[in-house]
Design brief:
Shape: rod-shaped
Number of helices: 3
Radius of gyration: 26 Å
Oligomer: single chain
Helix content: over 70%
Number of strands: 0
Length: 125
């Protein structure tokens, strides 16, 4: 088992928070981009329809626009979930800092050397 110190815990949680928030933002950007592509595809379908392109091609282009729009909506919903996950990760980080900072401070201020105390002692309730 690895030794998990307060410093390692806070660094790991901070890294996790940052990664989840970054990924959530990236998903949001990509979903919005897909929606732009869907709108452009719908405009292309209208334009080629006005040019009397065969109805099958126009229909397929409209169907593609519809699929892209649905994909964009699903990705936006996923992005909302990722945003919720990012907020949860932040809450976990705050809780860890709040809870474990007190323990870290108490150990740091202790007048007794606890560096040689077996870790199982600290796990007891």
């Amino acid at each position: 088992m690895t030794d998990l110190t307060y410093t390692r815990l806070t660094h790991a949680i901070a890294s996790l928070e940052k990664n989840i928030a970054r990924d959530s933002d990236e998903i949001q950007v990509r979903a919005q981009f897909m929606d732009v592509i869907a709108q452009d595809t719908a405009r292309v379908a209208e334009m080629i329809g006005a040019m009397n392109v065969d109805s099958e091609t126009v229909g397929e282009t409209k169907e593609l626009a519809r699929i892209l729009h649905g994909l964009s909506e699903a990705t936006l919903a996923y992005a909302a979930s990722a945003d919720t996950t990012a907020k949860s990760a932040h809450a976990v980080g705050e809780q860890a800092r709040t809870t474990h900072a007190g323990i870290d401070e108490a150990v740091s201020r202790a007048t007794v050397d606890v560096s040689e105390v077996h870790r199982d002692w600290f796990r007891q309730e």
